[in-house]
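Worked problem 6 (solution included).
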Amino acid sequence: MTKIVIASGNQGKIKDFKAIFSDFEVVGIKEILPNFEVEETGTTFKENAILKSEAASEELNLPVISDDSGLSVEALEGRPGVYSARYSGENATDEKNNAKLLDELKGVENRAAYFTCVLAISIPGEETRTYEGTLAGEILTEAHGDGGFGYDPLFKTLDGVYLGTIKAEEKGKISHRGKALEKLMNDKEVFKKLQK
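Solution. The predicted structure is:
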């Protein structure tokens, strides 16, 4: 089975990738390089995704996919954005981040928000390519379901789907990550190189 390396230690993301890439062996970078860390100094999802994929690809001398993603809330001027994972501070957890978001949106009527995912693919000796996907919806006033990870339990899509209540396979078909991966898979030339 073809192995695809993901430059992420986030088990929620790895699970999403496994659900979408069900015909491949998906391996998180920490399984190969337990101490792999990249400081996310970029100010955009794209910059951070490229930082991670290039560092991992260079170290392994293999093709690597990385993902930088997050939630942007209209009423919060796009926050938490690139700081989604560490929104509640240095020792952030999904629970703390969700609590902070709900607190900041107390009494706010406009709850429009969207998820963004930028995938970067670094192949040794080639220029890094990126693919972007988004998912629009709104922030709920309380959590629905305990599925997914991150802000999923607080998010309802424009079609009325509660992200925290659906399986990873279903989420993969509609999510920002799923849409970005679809663009990657449609880029046949690159996807072929990834499978070597």
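Discussion: The chain has one domain: 3-194.
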